[in-house]
Design goal:
Layout lengths: L3 H9 L3 H20 L5 H18 L9 H20 L13 H5 L12 H9 L4 H12 L4 H8 L6 H18 L4 H9 L5 H9 L8
Length: about 210
Amino acid sequence: MTSDETLLEAWRGGDSAAGETLLRRHFEALFGFFRGKVNDRGVAEDLVQRTLLATFRGRAGFRSDASFRTWLFTIARHELFADLRRNRRSLEVVAIGEVSIAELSGVGPNTVVGQVERARLLLDALRRIPLDLQIAIELTYWEGMSASDVATVLDIPMGTVKSRIRRAREALEQAMVELGGAIAQARDTMENLDGWAARVRDLAIGRDDDGRA
């Protein structure tokens, strides 16, 4: 398979087909990223399109010291924060990354405790922790990014990534318990967090049991 970097170089040189291949390759990951934070599917799709447009406009400025995917999620985070600010003028003085999606948008748990599977509980809990902690969890466990890549997306020193992930895990476990999950269940989920990645991603995207979106 042609690498992202090769496709990007071709795209920079005017090969539109290479650009389409590159963006199509990452479309689903971007959609999952936004759907984990936005209830409205249409808004999530719009944010994907904004991210892709920003990627197209900024492709000449891509630096090779990070992977294309890292750069793409950096843009996605910026577009998400910009959208939140557009819709909530009061956020101009708020450090968005330190506030949860639940606080920013009023998104609450989708179902009552006892009626949800663990993946739903986990997704609801993710939306209740500070946004940059949510993104750190998703990039690490959902996208399999390295500490260096996570640091780039979040714009933090690499040396603080491990502590950020630890804080994120602690906050996520607490949020699961606060939503009604059993402590043992929450701890078991944290111990197997990477194993829940595909299920939570599918849930965020809105796939049915057959894997269809």
